[in-house]
Amino acid sequence: MKMFGRHRWLWGSLLSVVVLLVGAGGWVVYQNEYDLTEERVTVTGGKQPLQGVLARPAGGHGPYGLVVFVHGDGPVDATHDTFYRPVWEAMAKAGYASLSWDKPGVNNAPGNWLDQSMQDRADETLAAIRWAKAQPGIDPDRIGLWGASQAGWVMPKAARQSPDVSFVIAVAPAVNWLQQGRYNLLAELKQRHASPEETAAAVARSDRNQAALRTGATFEQYRAAGGVTEGLTPERWAFNKRNYPSDATEDLAALRIPVQLILGGRDVNVDSDDTEAGYRRTITTPGLLRVQRFQDSTHTMVSEDVEHSALRSTVLAIAAPRSLFTPGYLDSIRDFLTSLDHRKG
Fold this sequence. Notes:
Layout: H1 2-31, E1 36-43, E2 50-57, E3 64-70, H2 85-93, E4 96-101, H3 118-133, E5 138-148, H4 155-161, E6 168-171, H5 177-191, H6 196-214, H7 219-224, H8 234-243, H9 249-253, E7 259-264, H10 272-282, E8 289-294, H11 304-307, H12 310-319, H13 329-344
Parallel strand pairs: 3-4, 3-5, 5-6, 6-7, 7-8
Antiparallel strand pairs: 1-2, 2-4
Helix pairs in contact: 2-13, 5-6
């Protein structure tokens, strides 16, 4: 009887574990399902075809407004490794579809994103808008841009050059390329409690880097002159040399459309204070600029404890991807888009 009771306890325990695992698996599946209808598309009309995803609200027929996604730096794919989907869903709740694409060269897409200037990226964005205007279920009068970080030099340029852009959502953008780089350097040194000597040496290296960019030095010339090339490729050097003069001031000053500026209070990549001041100084038409700060957010709109913990960020990304973001961030985007339609109404 004791042996039978032990076996029954063991089977009961195993059954409980199985139920927990099945339940956890079901929860993960549920958390990674979105109220979206996604379609793989090929965006044509630009320098090269773009491999994209068009995500529409589920269960409807439109016409929907459209948010065109403009990536930040790096080799980003259309979903940003699924990171965009909670944002797309928030936009869908406001009645907007989303369009995003693999950067050139990513996932075997034609081209190479490192060959692009910010103007090239703006041209690419405007080509995508022209393509989207002809798609069924898309309202051509309600098309705008969402972009993060480096997109801050692309979106104002695109919006200035085309009346098809009716709004901009800018997440953690900078205004001046070189100022952003210097802020990032100093903020990261401060974060890791670098000594005064280490800080001075890092600033001197940065000064040499900027001087070489200004003189148009090639990668080989920069390296031969003692420039630090760790983690730097000739392609990346050419990209930096092409784009380091970027400054969004003039393009921002020309905007006459609603702009939502979203900033993080713990951003070590971009100086949120400088960005907010720059946007307020240049976008002066009353009612056009909406600034929202999330004080506990980093550059990626997640909290520091999530960003600095690989375990926690991985668990959240798998089990509760919407919870990766700072509370209120997704709602702020939905509310902004809803307010645009009320404004038109």
